[in-house]
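Intended use. Records such as the WD repeat-containing protein 81 entry shown here are meant for training and evaluating sequence-to-structure methods. They are not intended to support clinical decisions.
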Amino acid sequence: DTACKMVRWLSAKLGPTVTSRFIARNLLRLLTSCYIGPTRQQFVPSSDENSPLSMGNIYQKRPVLGDQVSRPVLACLVHVAYLYGEPVLTYQYLPYISYLVAPSSGAGGGRLNSRKEAGLLAAVTLTQKIVVCLSDTTLMDILPKISQEVLLPVLGFLTSLAIGFPSGAQARIVLCVKTISLIALICLRIGQEMVQQHLSDTVRNFFGAFSLLQELQDQGLTAESLSSCEMPVMEVPLSDGKLLALDPAVLMELQKVFNPEMAYITYIPFSCLLGDVIRTVVPNHSLVEKLASVYLENMSPKSLQAISLEQAPSATGSDQDTRGTEPFSSHHEDSHSGTFGSVLVGNRIQVPVDTQREGLGLLRLSAGTDGFIPSSSSEENALKHDLPRSTHMLCGNWLAYWQYEIGVSQHDPRFHFHQIKLQSFSGHSGAIKCVAPLSSEDFFLSGSKDKTVRLWPLYNYGDGTSEVPPRFTYAEHKKSVFYVSQLEASQHVVSCDGTVHIWDQFTGKLLRTFDELDSKVPVTAVTTMPPPYHSISVASADSVLRFIDHRKPGLQHEFRLASGVSAGLIRCLAVSPNGRSVMAGFSSGFIVLLDTRTGLIMRGWPAHEGDILQIKAAEGNVLISSSSDHSLTVWKELEQKPLHHYKSASEPIHAFDLYGNEVVTGTVANKIGVYSMLESSALPISTTKLSSENFRGTLTSLAVLPTKCHLLLGSDNGVIRLLA
């Protein structure tokens, strides 16, 4: 239960692409595991049992143990579809189902393995869920696909004389009951005229199995007579001149499955559903009728009596007559038996008063013997359960991007930038100076020249053209905000306009401010320490680095990083991911490395010829710096020579962020470049010029969302855009 809740919460939080690639893919794989092994394929014992099949009707899905195990998995899969809409069902689940049921190629075609067998059961169960959730138009659009890629392959396995099931006849019976209940569900949804057009092959293939077995029996080939035969597979000529490969063990399975009882519980409801149409759809209807009547005659009179007693209370009127015990007396006379809204009681059609009012979706199928009694709507047995209109429905650019993403392999380490516009965030009236995604990637912070910090949601919304308002605006600053970030250990926001503000991201309450005592030396750079540290390092114009902790007054530490005028101002700070060293970049191109545990300067070196614009630290003691001399350089902390040195052709890289082993850069000319730290080439792997329809204004700040593979780009006109 808890796991289910967490998966649902994550599905909404992670957004459509990550959810589909990592959560839905694994849930689909899990679904197969729910049906592996003979024990999972046993019918769940019900309280009053005549025989395992005639209990319940074909619409009333007779649950097996695997169905109980798979319920939470299915619930989570349907929840993802509720969040992101029908495309999830048609573009992700259906292709996976057709992959599960595709006939296996290669030498092992003779016998299924237990995973393939479980896959077939999972596929049919999931298809049933999908059909219930699809709207009428979508169902009609993809019906040929369901028929060709799901139903016919499943029936191929089900009726094959050469392919054995590892769990024997039991697995076949379960698959047979599930498949027939799925076909019946589709028939109920689309009506009898459509069945004749689209599903006649499917129904014909199913009932054809009875004829095939009958023909083999007429030739004297039964499982008993063949058991003495040594040959594992033999060829048998049929009346239409074809040769048929046949495995005696499989024949035995089939005779257990397609017996008179199966004929009875499948043919009678179908003849009621389809009316006279069944004569044209099923050429061997007379044989199946005969088998069904054989089954009825063999049932002892006692059990027949029990059935009629069972049915008596289930009739909606008082006119219950003896026809309940003779299914064949009535279904020839009624020609309109397949119409929507009519109700089967046993095998008799009854149109109750309340179906007109309740409509189709509320027909609930009860568990009388082939009983079909409307009662209040129940989620389990509804024929149609429309997906609610969610605000996160995939459409437009989001849909196009999502379709591309679910096709990408999960292990692709590269950052691909397609320049697909997903969302715009407008609200700032001045240029964006900094953007900072929160670690969970469902919100981000932005600081601007308009003296405010805003918190924005990153959930998918609309078709890519929509503009999202901020969730919260912090307006306590007096000057332009040049730094904002989240202090992860305490979940507070740190922002700076020359004075550092520490405030609560949930309430917006200011917790503490910090500014230099001497107003002539303002704060020039700030950075937050990684968790579990609560400290903030602040650099001021006199080249002093101070550490403060919002939980106690005063300073923690104070270090002078440079003396004399030559080094210039500290432009930017970065902290290594483990929190052990702080790097400061000066306006003269100098970088100083400080050990936070000892307070000693480990190294200071002239890294660039121009002003240092930005520094970032990465795992493995690596730091990356960009400068106004057009260069981007990758350094190892204590090595003299740089690991990589890149040159930007036309303009300096004033904003960059890291994605794995790649550096994603942005320049004033609105060019996005991707550099690899694994390759020695000085040129970027890819360069993209932002088009004016996707991005207006001049690029001022950039941030990568590493899990979602998106880019946040801030511009000088106050609008932030999310691109993929």
